[in-house]
Design brief:
The termini are far apart. Mean pLDDT is about 85; it is low at about 1-20. The chain has about 210 residues and is α+β, with helices and mostly antiparallel strands. A hairpin with a 4-residue loop joins β4 (about 75-80) and β5 (about 85-90). It has 3 helices and 12 strands; from the N terminus they run αββββββααββββββ. The chain has helices at about 1-35, 105-110, 115; strands at about 40-50, 55-65, 70-75, 75-80, 85-90, 95-100, 120-130, 135-145, 150-160, 165-170, 175-185, 205-210.
């Protein structure tokens, strides 16, 4: 009996290691696909569930990305990141906050950043095959935080054909869960650097709040 239990434990450990290795290989391919894309333009639908309250919010959004830079457009907000500075513009108040975010803070703003940072503080596992909402074959990978960070868990659906994400589900430490379903993704866009920088001239009367130290 002890030998049987030992064999079972050995097989379980080997399976866990194999799942982690497969998940890491998939993420390596996804990261390589992102880096070689030479600029990505994407549209997506997002659903945010606010923990135990049961409230939720859904909206459509677009994002432009290149390297570690991005420009995110949602119904209420515009966000630019040029690799150093983050500008967050609120349409309702005509106000922009200017910050120098950490890597962890960027992940909460744009989860696609995880493609470049997945090996920083996350445990990976392969959770199986799936079919996307658009009928594409995919592989599913789970990331679980190994430390004290705002993001606790990420479930990622990766397109087998392109190695790029089709769906991203993010669970925060405070219980908020966001599900992002990508409906369109175009690579090779090669956006100019100005796309990722806030231009005050485009927003007359804007109040700039500089929160950088």
């Amino acid at each position: 009996m002890k030998r049987f239990i030992g064999i079972c434990l050995y097989m379980l450990v080997n399976l866990t290691v194999m799942q982690a290795q497969k998940a890491e290989a998939l993420f390596d391919k996804a990261a390589a696909a992102y880096e070689s894309a030479n600029g990505i333009s994407a549209s997506f639908a997002a659903n945010v569930q606010f923990g135990k309250q049961g409230d939720s919010e859904s909206f459509e959004a677009t994002v432009e990305m290149k390297g570690n830079k991005f420009y995110l457009i949602t119904p209420d907000m515009r966000t630019w990141y040029d690799g150093t500075t983050l500008w967050t513009y609120m349409l309702r108040t005509n106000e922009v906050n200017i910050t120098t975010p950490s890597g962890d803070e960027l992940e909460t703003v744009n989860p696609m950043i995880l493609l470049r940072r997945y090996n920083k503080g996350f445990k990976l596992s392969y959770t199986g095959e799936s079919t996307s909402d658009l009928g594409k074959m995919a592989d599913d990978v789970k990331l679980v935080s190994k430390g004290n960070r705002d993001i606790e868990e990420v479930d990622l659906q990766i397109d087998r054909a392109t190695s790029l994400p089709l769906r991203i589900s993010v669970t925060m430490k405070n219980g908020v869960r966001s599900v992002i379903r990508i409906s369109r993704m175009k690579t090779g866009v090669n956006q100019p650097e100005s796309v990722f920088v806030f231009n005050a001239a485009d927003y007359p009367g804007v109040l700039e709040v500089d929160l950088r130290n």
